[in-house]
Design goal:
The complex is a heterodimer of chains A (about 200) and B (about 350).
Chain A: H1 2-16, H2 20-53, H3 59-68, H4 74-85, H5 100-124, H6 128-136, H7 141-151, H8 153-169, H9 172-178, H10 188-197
Chain B: E1 4-13, E2 16-26, E3 31-35, H1 42-49, E4 57-62, E5 65-66, H2 74-78, E6 81-84, H3 95-105, H4 110-123, H5 139-152, E7 157-161, H6 169-186, E8 189-194, H7 197-203, E9 206-211, E10 214-220, H8 221-226, H9 231-236, E11 241-251, E12 254-259, E13 262-267, E14 275-280, E15 286-288, E16 298-310, E17 313-319, E18 323-329, H10 330-335, E19 343-348, E20 353-357
Helix pairs in contact in B: 3-4, 3-5, 4-5, 5-6
Chain lengths: ~200, ~350
Amino acid sequence: MTEIWNGLIQAIGLIASLDPEVMEIAGRSLMISVTATILASLACLPLASIIHFHRFPGKRLLINIIQTLFSLPTVVVGLFVFVLFSRAGPLGGLDIMFTPALMIIGQAVLITPILLGLIISALGGVDRTMVDTALSLGASGPQVALAIIREARYAVTAAVIIGFSRAISEVGLAIMVGGNIKGFTRVLTTAISLETSKGELGYQ
Amino acid sequence: MSLIEVVGLSQKYGDRTVLNNINVNIEKGEVFALIGPTGAGKTTLLRLIDLLEVPTSGKIYFDGIDTTALGRMKLRIRRRMAFVLQKPSVFNMNIYDNIAYGLKWRGKSRKEIEAKVNYLLEVIGLSALRHKNARTLSGGEAQRVAIARALAVEPEVLLLDEPTANLDPISTLKIEELIQNIFRQYRTTIVMATHDLSQGRRLAHRIGVMVDGEIIQVGKADEIFNSPTNREVAEFVGVENIISGVIVSRDGDIVTIDLNGKLIEAISDGAVGDEVYACIRPEDVTLAPSKAISSARNALAGEITRVVLTGSLVHVEVDCGFSLIALVTKKSTEELKLRSGDQIYAGFKASAVHVIKKQ
């Protein structure tokens, strides 16, 4: 019990004293996950609009697949990205294995289904008459999409926040493609996981 | 050439035929009302005119251009019109931005947008609320915003779908005034759908009566009201007495019609032997306790079967071989002591009978 208690006190101390290493790791975590979220959002907003506003065979199936991928294990995405970018892999030539750049790519891939799925349902939540209203006022296709995204802004923002929280909280992918290199790819989750496995509940 | 020409237009959703062979022309600078009961296909016709849907068959010409054959050009045609939907739909933003939206989409300058929107805010009387979120408005206010937003883009054709449905009488009055002002000021061609006949009469130059996906009569408002060409239209324009009969003789313009054994006189160009409907407006029927000497050619003895008070007027149902409804004032009802079971004479002029030939 004392061990847990001491660990907690130590943790509070590290945060309160703005320990340089803790701050650096937290900053890197934020940088990687925020960038991944922005990249994924930039890809998902137009993609979700295209899926939502067009009728095509297999649309229902596609949405079902996207929703199934919500619960994709992080290590599966980790493995996929690892194989793709490892030296022998098809994108090995880029030589970004165990770098923050690859962690950003991995997290962006990981949260894409969630963002896509939630943005599609956010757009679906906007009354169909708003689309007709926009069209009848002379909006072009992309203008209609923007207007509807704007109408759904709260739900879209929620989708982005959920995507971000999945990115910053995952550990499997960060450790597999980042490697938990001190001062380079170590993030909050990988640091906690390492220290805990060493039996250190605090952080030295 | 008409501004909008609808030719042989049909629309089907699966097995359901919503519009069946619609042919109608709308002239530049007129107010045209589509009148008909709910579900007659008015909204679908407006949506097709605004190119929001693609028809199953038939064509719509806008200013001579076949709109059904257009691909990417649709936007250009659609930008010459504006459509106000039945349900007041405003975007979740302030009133000013709502009205400015169509202009922004057309890439107008900030200055131009500001001038137009400010002016329209004055017209609809919501200047003080410009920064208020449009979603917080009442139905009537939201509909005024929707109309102002449509007007901002200065459309050649303004399409209005039941602009006052679900609104209270005061809001309805304001919207009707707004529509009249718009027309007076801009001479915009207006096509409006309504199920309210009196609204159609107040606002429109011409009326098309729609029933079950077909336009069954087109004409000037008074024409439709006074001389419906078939039973459905007659029912719709409020003729409560529509009685089936046969023309049995003719004397000049006057014909005698056998209505269920009772003979009445009417003015008609129908031939002897024609099966007809005799349409008599309840307000044209007078009631008298005895067979009074009168200029009215028809006086039928009957028994009052029902007396229904509606506001200051009373609907009196008389059985005189067929059921005839008379509309009298409350005062007359009291003076004549009209009660169910009383014997009475129902009178009406021959000229008050509108005769429709059975198809």
